[in-house]
Specification:
The chain is an alpha+beta fold. The chain contains four helices and five strands; from the N terminus they run E-H-H-E-E-E-E-H-H. It has one domain. It comes from Achromobacter pulmonis.
Amino acid sequence: MLRLIAAATQEPVTVEQVKRLLHIDHDALDEDIPGVITAARELVERRTGFALAEASYEWTPVGGRVSPLPIWPGETTSEAGVLPILFTSKPGPVPEPLKLAIIMLVGDMIENPEAAGEKVLHQNPGFARLVFPYTRVLP
């Protein structure tokens, strides 16, 4: 089980980048956009299996086995009942397609906050094409 210990303090995209690419020319959403960026980044991280911002986690392996960590890179060998593993993800530069995927999600979340819109972006072929090359398949 993966549990967040220390959240990311810096996101891979800025409020200014989001506003520029989504053509938002007012300040009414400036307080809300950072939280939406975080939610979008976390969704892309879950979809791809890659950490996109530095954060600390606790991973509790289940049972005795070789267990891949849920966020690349890392693998651990564990035994049942062993203490949780603490680790920090320190990713390198985030690929531009994943930054654009985050921005697309932010736009969708702002436009359809209840997810009741006619389309669901994470099922959008454009979004899927952006994240697919970076999607990690666990063994």
